[in-house]
Amino acid sequence: MLANYLPILIFLIVATGLATVLLLAGTFLGRLSSRYRGDAAKLSAYECGFDAFEDSRMKFDVRYYLVAILFIVFDLEIAFLFPWAVALRRIGLFGMVSMAIFLAILVVGFIYEWKKGALEWD
User: What is the pTM of this model?
Assistant: First the structure.
């Protein structure tokens, strides 16, 4: 009975050892390259192009989150088109009709959000 758990124990030992080695290697190699951290170009702002002028914990407008959620929703729904396109020959007319209904609902939702002004960034 105990021999059944031996592969799990070996896996845990190897995983723990590998994680420890990788963490120590990253720490050691990071300290070796610390002489390059003082470069002014590397310390400059690179994400938005200018230095922060306010607290980084400021409140964002709700529209930012709304646009982000809408992007994720529509992006994931569009991702369903790829497996459908691959299996279109096998699913036939039923698959075509069901995807047409799915896309119609997607377009109606997109038009609704557009009319509500959720995509406006004033």
Answer: 0.46
